[in-house]
Amino acid sequence: MYFQCMKKGPLTGPSTKRQRNDAKRKYLYCHVCLILLLLVFSGQKSAAANAQLRQDTLIPVSGLITDEKGNPFPGVTVYVPSLKTGTASDATGHYQVKAPAKGNLVFKAMGYASQEMPVNSRSRIAVKMEAENANLNEVVVTGYTSKRLSQISSSVAVVSGKQLNDVTSNNVASLLQGKVAGVVVQNASGNPSVAANVTIRGSSSITAGSGPLYVVDGIIGGTANPNDIASVTILKDAAAAGLYGARASNGVVIITTKSGQAGKTQISLNSSVGFNKMSMGNMKLMNSQQLYDYQKSYFAPADFARDRPASLLSQNTDWMNLAYRTGLTQNHLLSVSGGSEKTQFYVSGNYYKEDGIIRHTSNEVYNLRANITHRINEKLKLSTRINAASRNFENEASGNYGALVLSKINLPWDNPYNADGSIKMGTEEGWIGREHDNFLHGWQFNYDKGKQLITYADINLDYYITPHLTFSSYNRVSYSNLRSELYYDVRSKAGRGLGEMYNNSSYENRLITSNRLNYQRTFGEHALSAIAVAEGEKNYFENNSLYGNKIPAGLHIMDAAANIQKSPFGPGSKSESRFTKGLVQVDYTFREKYNLIGAYINESSSRFGANHRSAGFYTLGGSWILSNESFMKGQRFIDQLKIRASYGITGNAEIGDYQSLGIYAYTSQYASNPGSVPSVLQNPDLTWEKSKTTNIGLDIDLLKRISLTVDVYDKTTSALLLDVPVPYTSGYAYVTRNVGSVRNRGIEFNLNTKNINGARFKWETSFNLSINRNKVLKLNNHEDIPYSSLQWISEGRDLYSWHMRKWAGADPKNGDPLWEVVSTDANGKQTIGTTNSYDDATLQYIGSASPDFTGGINNRFSWKGITLSAFFNFVNSNQVYEENTNDGSEPTSNSRVLPKNHNRWQKEGDIATDPKAVYGGNKNSDLESSRFLEDGSYLRLRNITLSYDVPESFLQRIKVNNARIFISGDNLWTLTRFSGMDPEMGLRPYSQPAGESGNNFQQNSTKYPLAKKVLFGINVTF
Fold it and tell me: The whole model's pTM is what?
């Protein structure tokens, strides 16, 4: 009918008015019919489509999403267009979603190319995302969760396993030196058995520990062999460390170990061997002739002729050469990794041995690791991680002052050997040196050795309740057994005619369980993730010490001792501590531009008083990615621009156990009966140290070549866990209280550039710089704390301020030593004068051991398979204490050659840095004063490596995947004005590093110096 009407058309019929009206009505009728026909047809088509959708059955689809490097990719949006629903990949990169069997899935992640893939009735679909901005999409492990860098609103830094292991060491802390802005690593000793000290954004505590919290594979505590590490993440501000808030005041170091990847099994062999040598730095000891001439200048002529005959010059013993050696370092790793889509594994064995540059010092470690992950079914995944390490170590045990000190003070005129070649003890007639001790003699009989066995075992379970909700249980048990033995043979001087032995043993275990609910959901332009955690931890420690003497020569066993008693190093003890924690954290992202994060943590510890055992902590953070805004589109200069801000409260519980309880110690005896003495004064109000941290950061990438990160922070720690002195009449020396405050403020820069990025030649640079200012805001009753004879802690000053008499040089008239005298009149006006009396000189604050800034720079050049990398670290404007001269006070000890730019007073009118040398000493000129404070600034070539990647064409013929040969050098060059052997020292003088023995203190050049190393190695993968 409609088509018949249209044939005539409305204007081709009769021309009368009535006929025209009929025609119009008929035309309108036809159009109405057309509309009805279209609606019916459309409805049938829609019904058919719905019927088709019903027939297209929804099926469960799951799989693994990886980034361009093959690593699991969390937080990727998985969208089902036909259903307008979606999900996100979990922390392990897996996802689960329901989709039509003939539908499509869309995979989206900021900075990555979106991918749309047909389902085609498949139940498993694996996806590899292709990056558009690698920096923005780097996945960062933050402990409990993993996030893309674009989602992070806090200050974090990541060091890859490859970057970490450019320097040769078995200590993770030492390997971090100079690689992260705000992280100061100090090697307080070069002894291969001693770990480095790590401080993140300045020290915030006085009595409590100031080291960071370590987290390995998502669980608090643990350790890992550096060769097994995939990455190290440093959490520096409160928002980053928030989930560890109760113990994160000093920052958090998160270690992630390697895992296997589905695919072909890989066998890797990494092996390196090299040598270690001592460096004298700028220190020069006098030889026989130099010392002879120097002593002649201050001896009375008659005494010199009698006590220092010219025949002494026939002997020129180099004691440094006798004490030090060229040691061997070797590091061998064999690993096997691989697996299927359901099961992945990584198994490795490592052998590391380093001979110390001082004879009879060494560290030997055997390490085994097995990381296995198995996906039981679509809902359940099981992971096990087992790490076992056996360590054997040796410390120099000549006795008394030890070789480290004696090699510097023994006289070159003393011959260590008898005429028949046997070794002298040093007590023989004719020996001139002050200590009358020859460390070579003690080495024949004495030893200081130990062994340690450490085992960690993790069992982790992930249950995927829904595609958006996951329950995880992470559990660890760890054990550590340590035994050490120090033996002084009756034939040695240190044996004191008795023969002595010290046995020390300790046992430690830790049980921890961490149970987590993790929720992730994407709603269109909104992304929400939340985590709730319940955690419990139990620690146990015990140690025992024994001392025995009257041991026959050569019998290295305690049962041979005629007299056995408790060790003077301390009695045996047992202690336990417990922590429980509950927390919740919520992350929200809108349009992949705006990120918010908030967390609340409540933690309890048995270490604190009954009134305040638990405490609450919280963190807040936010970030804005400006480069994703519409007004930034179209420009090519800025690839990424992001601003961050965070605030939070974190805590510190690093004190000894039972510090809040009233304790008596049963360490005394009376008339052969046990007795107790007051030990700890009760304080039921003792609670956590708390740090309030504010951080503002900027991340910017330019021209796909330049990446810059800037952070400004303010961290104020209050309620310090401080040992407060109490009157001795109370029966106690001190009580631990919450009093005092310390503030750290600073700025950090991290810059990465691709200077040249050609097809054959590449040059990349990484640079970091950190500036931190430390200030003590409040102390107990505003009273200064004399931390040592050289350092006091005072309100308004740096935590590591030097406190001593101020050196004023040598008196031009007579060569006397001069120190400052500060007098104050009734009006408060100060007058500064000088005095040659040490006792009359004024004690005052002079500088600080804290540096003005620290950092590192690495340059990497590559061309046709050849790669050269050079890594420098630097420290600027810290003051270190170094007694570097002998003004005649010790004529039976060797002396140093005066450092450059120093001169000694000889005659009236001389303007000299050093006073006149006088037999027996010049008015206490050698006593502690700022005369021995030096600038500890240095620039060190921490590592340089030249490597060659064997061509693939050759490797294919021998069926090897890849091979690399290299030569590497550590600490080969140091630029410094410091007059000693090594400017790198701890912040506290007269403190002995943990694990050190003997008189190896951080002053007087008695610090064990760092070694220069040259190693040759090969890395092969089959």
Answer: 0.85
